[in-house]
User: Fold this.
Amino acid sequence: MLRTLLSPRVMGLHLLTIGVLVAFIMLGRWQLGVFQDSGKPRVSTDPAPVAVASLAQVGVQMNGEAVGRRVTAEGVYEAGRQLLVADRQADVDAPGGNVSRDQGYWVLTPLKLDDGTLVPVVRGWVAEADDPAVAAVPQGRVALAGRLRPQQGTDSVQRRAEGLPAGQVQTVSTGELVNLWSGERVRTGYVVAQPASGSLTQVKVAPPVTGGTLTWRNLAYAANWWIFAGFAVFMWFHFVRDAVRADRDRGKSSPEMVLEG
Assistant:
């Protein structure tokens, strides 16, 4: 049997089978990778800015497609209603709630639009609540650009056991702002100003991200390639067995060397 297995004809079959197996396994891995990548979140095309009023409504949950969109707004800042959002980093996507040396305050100032509604605007970030930049609210009519973010749940951060000083909040929650800014109609969500207002530190915010859709067809392709690889092994076994039997029948192999069928 060994003589048959090492014959040039069968050796060629061995090499061909190995090549086919490597190719089919790699093709299957490639299709599996395509399938896995299809489900990963990805940055979508950044659309042109639109008026904030077209995406952030009053009393209506924000559409997921609006999150991260570039928006514009014109109005007057309500300096007397300004708040500080405590325990925040200069990155809107950074986790809050655990005090660290890099945490400070978002400066949250409502912008009154021409229709009388308020849009919460994160004008920037400061390390200390008494930073002079906090009080430097632009006067008169302003036009700003930024990215729209959804409201934050009041349970999304760890609350301070001792509470917060007056004029500070833990999250940018529309429901909480409606109570604090009583008598005003507040639009859902908030805008992170870009660039930051005055000498405040810019708060970073990512562009829109969309969830990928799994392409199950690629998973099926991967399975097909691996099935083909298994079939190649099956055919190799039968070709080798037939070669051994043929040599045995011709008396070229001793009986004890016959491959079990």
